[in-house]
């Protein structure tokens, strides 16, 4: 597989309004941490035997997983989304923090090297295994860290991982670098990834 980076043409608008008829694909766009939330409480979506397809609705997934109460699952997903919002930083807020000379923030980018080289926030670093070990083993637990991905879908999981390992000041960039490029710094190119079989 080769990764091609090209200009992103349209923006994504999201709403956190979910119902039993919301598909799992829509759910993952609306609530990026939904897979983590479903797996943590109900062991849904973490492996092949408990997986789901993007076209299944929440109601269908609940029904084939021991007939889980749909309203309970919906409430859990909404609560999880509220929690995730608390560990997110908005692009404008991050820009203000970066511009503040009194703040020393570590910007850890979890995208591929190709993506990073094509578009990045000044001062950010690719999160390698070595850098992760250094952060968890040597940095002060209150070190401000912001996790950056492409559209905000994966950064919450990585932020939760760091928080789970005792780091106390970790946030995920809401909407990822794409939102940052749209809202704060138009000099950063927007892109989409296309996969092509060799």
Low-pLDDT segments: 1-15
What gross morphology would you assign? globular
Main beta sheet: 5 strands, parallel
Question: Main sheet: which strands, in order across?
Answer: 2-6-5-3-4
Describe what is shown at a glance.
By secondary structure, this protein is an alpha/beta fold.
Describe this structure in words.
The protein is of the alpha/beta class and 198 residues long. The chain has nine helices and seven strands. It has helices at 24-30, 34-42, 58-64, 70-86, 91-99, 113-118, 129-138, 155-164, 176-183; strands at residues 2-6, 88-89, 106-109, 125-126, 145-148, 170-173, 192-196. A five-stranded parallel sheet has the order 2-6-5-3-4. The longest helix is centred in the middle third of the chain and has 17 residues, at 70-86. It starts with a strand and ends with a strand. The model is unreliable at 1-15 (pLDDT under 50).
Secondary structure layout plus pairing:
Elements: E1 2-6, H1 24-30, H2 34-42, H3 58-64, H4 70-86, E2 88-89, H5 91-99, E3 106-109, H6 113-118, E4 125-126, H7 129-138, E5 145-148, H8 155-164, E6 170-173, H9 176-183, E7 192-196
Parallel strand pairs: 2-6, 3-4, 3-5, 5-6
Antiparallel strand pairs: 1-7
Q: What would the keywords be for this entry?
A:
Oxidized Rhodanese, domain 1; two-stranded antiparallel ribbon; 198 residues; 5-stranded parallel β-sheet; globular; disordered N terminus; alpha/beta
